[in-house]
Design brief:
The chain starts with a strand and ends with a strand. The protein is elongated, with a radius of gyration of 21 Å. It has about 270 residues and is of the alpha/beta class. The strands form four sheets. It has a five-stranded mixed beta sheet. About 25% of the residues lie in helices and about 25% in strands.
Length: about 270
Amino acid sequence: MPKIKRRIIKIDEEKCNGCGFCLPACPEGALQIINGKAKLVKEGYCDGLGACLGECPQGALRIEEREADAYDTEGVIAHLQERSPELLEKHLGHLAQHAGELSGGPGRQGRCSCPSEAVLQWEGGGEGPAEGPDEKPAQAGKNYSELRQWPIQLHLVPPFAPYFQNSDLILAADCVPFAYANFHQDFLKGKAIAIGCPKLDDAGAYRQKVEQILEHADLKSITVVRMEVPCCYGLVHLVREAIDNSGKDVPLETVTIGIKGEIQERTAVSR
């Protein structure tokens, strides 16, 4: 198998406690628990897309770029057929979804990044106003992104993501940032976020995800920012159920945004 420079999983054995949460998250079956630690079975089995990253509660997994065996699609299929045939359908769906990222076309050989699934966190939001004397002055009247994490869609965020730990969580309806012009500065700054639409998506799956976040992250508070339309109240309802089911005492606040962009109501919710 030829060696190429590409992205591939790296396991910190000192942090790994052998919990095994990463195993079902890997569609290739590239990880196994051996002698109480997660191990990469074979370099060619890891696609480097990082689907397993957010499932590790110890933070023992990361993606590094180094010389490694090229990703072996046929080898992965043979491996799954022999060892884990129940994962084969999941892998084939994963392969179809990310075919462009794993193809050998110009500029793509060894390119292994999945922006929708890679767990990213950075400090201080986006590019903000200049502070140092050698920096260029900020543009007058320009707003800056306060986003500090990726992903943000509730179906995609992993409950173990480090940006949820000890955070104030904003759960916003998809339409809110479009209707409320100052969303970043008034709601998002310094907070973790997840977004969703209870009318178009699976509200039950959303509730389960919020329960998982509550179970694994010591949240300081949850603020649900919803639109005034009735269907959007589903976000408030599912979060209240999730908090009740989790048994956690987490302060909950709701903010209602009008379709013309004004704050209509702000309420602390008693349970």
